[in-house]
Amino acid sequence: EILSSLPLQMSLYFNVYFFPFWWLITVVILYLKYPILSDYYKFILVTIMILVSLTELIRLYLGYVGNLLEKVPELAGFWLLTLLPQLPVILFLLFNEGLKIHSLERAVHVIFAAFLSFQVVAAFFTLKRMVNTLAARFRLTEFHRLEEQRPGPGVYSPAAGSSS
């Protein structure tokens, strides 16, 4: 039985090609609006760009490995990196009006937020299915191991003893 999720994999595939486009648009617009931003927003935006860039590379790698190779730890790492740093940061970039958001910037943030939202849901259900299947396999393996260790009928058991 294949446990990988095709919708999740398709989303990851398109995300790999969309992320450089998102990054380029965001950096160009940041460069253009940098002089009119307050100092703390300048610091926040530069920090966010570094954080998102590094996290996205790791996140996409973990998503590919976790989904295609059906590895639960990697897929769980992907899910956590999507849910915790990435999604809140993109929502901050999308909804904070103090950042003087450009319409093109808003458009790419909406698409990126849609990718992230879909991936959170798809990865959750894929993880749930993988964990349940692996737990069932583990239980069956343990059951078969215990069946092999159990003595068959007609075998003398010292616990029963003899009354002679």
Automatic annotation (TrEMBL):
Subcellular location: Cell projection, Cilium membrane
Highest taxon of the lineage: Eukaryota
InterPro entries: Uncharacterised_TM-17
Topology within the bilayer: Multi-pass membrane protein
Principal subcellular localization: membrane
TM segment ranges: 12-32, 44-64, 76-95, 107-127
Function noted in UniProt: Transmembrane component of the tectonic-like complex, a complex localized at the transition zone of primary cilia and acting as a barrier that prevents diffusion of transmembrane proteins between the cilia and plasma membranes. Required for ciliogenesis and sonic hedgehog/SHH signaling.
Family: Belongs to the TMEM17 family.
Name assigned to this protein: TMM17 protein
Organism: Myiagra hebetior
Source species taxonomy: Eukaryota, Metazoa, Chordata, Craniata, Vertebrata
